Known about the structure:
It contains 7 helices and 57 strands. The protein starts with a helix and ends in a 93-residue tail after the last strand. One of its GO terms (cellular component) is plasma membrane. GO terms for molecular function: calcium ion binding.
Amino acid sequence: MFALFCTILLYVYSYCLSVDFTYHIKEGNMPSSYIGDIAVDTHMIEKIKSEERHLIRFNQLQKDKENASQLFNISEDGKFYVIQTLDAETLCKYKKMCFRMVDVAMQKREIFVRILEIKVVVEDINDHQPVFPVKQITLEFSEGDKKGTTLSIPNAIDEDISEENSRITYKLLSNNKVPFIMVVSERVDGSYSVGITLETELDREIKDHYYFQIIAKDGGKPSKHGILKVYVSVLDINDNLPLFSQDVYNISINCKYKVNKAVMDLDAEDLDTGENGKVMYHFSSKTSEMTKSHFQLNEITGEIFLCENFPFKKRQTYELYVEATDGGNPPLSSIAMILVNVVNQRNNPPIIDMNFVSKSSNNMATILENTKIGSFIAYVKISDTDTGQNGKVTCTLQHDKFQLQNLGEKKYKVVLKSFADKEKESHITFKVICEDNGFPRLRTEKEFSVLVTDINDVIPQFNKETYKFLIYENEESNFPVGFVNATDPDMGLGGQLTFSLFSKNNVALPFQITNYGFISTTESLDREQKDIYIFQVLVKDSGTPRLNNTVDVIVEVMDKNDNAPYFTFPSVNPFSLDIYFQPQNNNDVTKLKAYDKDSKENAFLKYEILEGNEKELFTMNCYTGVLSFSRNVYQNEAGVYNLLFVVKDNGIPILSTTTSLSLTLVASNHTFPLLTIATNELDFKIQMNLFLMIIAAAVSGSVIMVISITICVVKKTNKIKTSSKQRINPSDKIFSVDRETQNTSEQISYNPPLLRENTQQNSLLQLQEEKGQHLSNYKVTLNGTNLNSRIPYQATSKEIHQIYVQNAHRPASHRKNKEDFQCNFYNYRQMTAKSQNDCEFIEKVGSHYEELSGLHPDQNDFQQASTSQSRVYAYSGSNSSYQTGNFNTTGHTNVTSLHAQSSIRTNNLSTTILSHTLPTKCGFSSFSKPLPALPKTASDI
């Protein structure tokens, strides 16, 4: 008994070593019952990175057995379920421990990870009651039997396989006292022998029969029981059992053992005589059906033989339970256990067993067309019962699509070697060849098939990376824009395409697209609002899963001449402007500005004067819009000029806009300012000349001569003198006009000056005032000597006026008559003003005054002025008006004091200093330009 237990324990332990996890489930469960989570219970998920755990899939490997029923189901995430109700007695009829092995493939996507071998133990429940072979039995006791005489009764059978549920206890139950007791003894096979023992001697004359019940109760919770009705007749009965010489027999045979030769000859001895001593042999109920199919038992002789189909495989032990029964009534029996050990010395070919990941039938599985290279296709198990070199097996797979990879001893996996293409090969057949190392080598070939199923594996493709289309603005809706072409080689729904438009910023688009890829407008487009549209076209096929692709589309809206130009200056119509003509400056009056919302040639503008230029006094630059004087302006041309301007674009048709400009032209006789140094020395020279001439006349004695000379001197003095009143008001009044003399004065306010004296040949008079602006610059040249006066004007906090007068000696031989007196006037200005609409207009103009006819006095009056030397002093006053006086022809000049109101006059020379910054309108600056006086006639003198 102990040896049997150790053998079974060793067998179970060796088998369990290769199990990854064991589940226990009770029989009689409901279908689809949850068993457990393989991923969690086996701790395999813990070995996978957390970010890759969602890629793990579990598949139950399928046996290629058409008649094999499916007991379990495993979801892709590892949930383990039972499919049908389990019955331990049906699954494991002859085993005390009922279990099933399940092979589970663990994959990361299509990549094989490992095979998990799951053991499912089906726990027995007490669902069967002990059952006697018969419902009632009759026993016969001889009245001569002594105390202790025992008669056997059939024991109860409990079909439960667990030891607890199948353990039976017996109890004798009777309403009346009987001379019998029940005796239970355990047999070698674990069953019990039940007997009725005579407790006291029987007296047939008192009572010849007895009735009682035998209750058989199992060990389950709750327990169940069976009842056997027992009738006892007092007779002489068979009271001896057939006995074996030993309880356990252990024998070994090899693969060459002959079939017709008895493996063992059993002999059970029965002391009874007659029929009670005749022994018959048969396999007990504990012997498995498989074992019974491999062995034959002679019921009369007790000889055991091998069957014709006995499988000589690897070393294996068979357990045979033989029961010997005599011919008594009731029959008595005993059981012996025979262990047959088979030692295999033959060479058998290997056996190939392939389990596919996908469902298979008749060695055919299915894979998808897009299955990745290296994907796990099938699991291959090789079995060879031979030992030594005969049991070593090598397998190969020769195919361009599949590859066989070794997983260990006699274990392989089939993976995809190259991509499968449904269009090229829809059905793939391959063969696995396994060969052992025995002599001779034995090989096994098994053919398998894989069916390739089509999928939507091709993304729709555009024939361009970017589509660019041109369209004119103002077209009606549904106007065609262009065609986007996409193709998809997939068949069926995978090749049916649909198009849609979308923008990255989810902005509504004025376009639509058909399912054929034609793009059209949904509304009229305006280039001035938006000239370019950038969006994407999305194309999807109708396969499963749906594949899509996008392409960039650029639609450029081309311009039409649908916007007329408009003037930005002048911004109002009509616009008034006061202007002055200064011939020394450039002749620009103002600059018209216009804008056109269109582009390119539609926005190319040309300016023209339509009306108001009958005197042809103005000219217009047709491209820049600059209005200029076309010639010199005379005093009698002063007045108001109403000019009508037009600006035209270059589009088709030509669009134009007009505006009116009212120009007030101011004219004056004094055409350029001459600011000279006024000193008392000039008056002194004049007086001295007059005095000398009078003395000369007195000496000559000619009164008439004296009077004539006096008249000439006085007249010449009046011609040289000019009156120039200069005044600057920091606010807005810059100029004042003398109504009587028609002279324009510039008022200058300056700080107390600095008096300097230069003993060299050059003398300097500097008038300096710091204000908030710079005015104009002046340059005066007298007989080759420069008299410079600078009055700068800037938008700062200081205003500085400087007048430089320089008088240098030059020999009379180096002077020319035409160069005795020259006046050059330079004006530099910069003005910035803002219009009402915050536009800014800046102009920088450098102007040079021209010499006008009739400007110079007689040259002879100034020929001697170049030889004089002068010392220059600067004087101050809050408001000073400087006028030029008569120039003496003597070689020496006296310098006199200048008071707050001092004037220097020059004969026949009158200058006017005009402002160079007038009030602006809409960002436009007008400039003072003195007008040349008309030539004087003899009557004017």
